[in-house]
């Protein structure tokens, strides 16, 4: 998988970048990558978005998924055979009952981190240290979620369980790290105004739940803040959905024209109804740390994009253009709507969330544009919403 691209050091300001090692055609999968560690978001799980506790594969059938998002249990989806969910393969941890999509995922979780994090019979005990930690996190970080304290918990648990602890510490140290000032900014962004007090509370709960002598540095105020910033900067959002899998499968069906039109109209209407009921929260969502993907720098005119077409945590990086050998492969950290805004607005978002000012060709070309902020732009933006929404839905 690594053959088409490799990470290279660019400069101390930019850090690493990902470069094509051969010519890559538009539409080609550059690589498929599994995360070093990943975790579903806590509110997402609480609201019954049922996903495999290890790989985040959606566990509901497409029909159950649509019924829940619509709040309508009578809905029947046509072509149910196009749903890829195999409930007969699902397994639970016999001790704490978290659910996995397969025996393989249950085993992989157990071998990597679940022995340390399994709550056993304390799963619903609010006084258990891990439950206290999760509750505190939920009270600080409301939807839309961008990170999870459990990603950090799984990092610690992974190292606790590992025979070769140094290998894992090295794996985690590959992710871009920041200076103390930058870390502070990222943590501030994730936790808001009360961040110092909140961070300290989280650190104490994190320590109570997970302390390990070998990793003692991660539990100090500085070490904990660094860990937090690492996850805040490098975490890649993961979205899975059995409904969107079903839609993709239906799109590929070879149907007579009339049936095709009927099915397309049904799907369009379904998404409009779901949007009224559930808004933008369509997917099982979480985040993960991906070694190669985290080396991809941002461009406002990206030549590649990430997606999760296998309905689990396997990240596919796909070329949006032909990319020549030696060329840098860039993705966009902004969604479609944000990319269409002025350079000033784009850079405001990038500075606040990723602590850099973009100098991609598009930004350089617009360098002389007036500094219009988004409020002034907002008026012209309403009409793109439907199209954007559709993009968001099919991007999974």
UniProtKB/TrEMBL annotation:
Q: Which InterPro entries match?
A: SET_dom, SET_dom_sf, SMYD5_SET
Top-level enzyme category: transferase
Q: Which reaction does it catalyse?
A: L-lysyl(20)-[histone H4] + 3 S-adenosyl-L-methionine = N(6),N(6),N(6)-trimethyl-L-lysyl(20)-[histone H4] + 3 S-adenosyl-L-homocysteine + 3 H(+); L-lysyl(36)-[histone H3] + 3 S-adenosyl-L-methionine = N(6),N(6),N(6)-trimethyl-L-lysyl(36)-[histone H3] + 3 S-adenosyl-L-homocysteine + 3 H(+); L-lysyl-[protein] + 3 S-adenosyl-L-methionine = N(6),N(6),N(6)-trimethyl-L-lysyl-[protein] + 3 S-adenosyl-L-homocysteine + 3 H(+)
The answer to whether the entry has keyword GTP-binding is: no
What are the record's GO terms for cellular component? Answer: cytoplasm
The cross-references to SMART domains, in alphabetical order and at most eight, read: SET
Q: Which residues form the SET domain?
A: 5-334
E.C. code: 2.1.1.359, 2.1.1.372
State its location(s): Cytoplasm
Ranges where the record places region Disordered? 370-396
A molecular-function term among this protein's GO annotations:
histone H4K20 trimethyltransferase activity
For this UniProt record, the keywords arranged alphabetically read as follows: Cytoplasm, Metal-binding, Methyltransferase, S-adenosyl-L-methionine, Transferase, Zinc, Zinc-finger
Q: Name one GO biological process term.
A: regulation of cell differentiation
What name does UniProt use for this protein?
Protein-lysine N-trimethyltransferase SMYD5
Q: Which organism is it from?
A: Prunella fulvescens
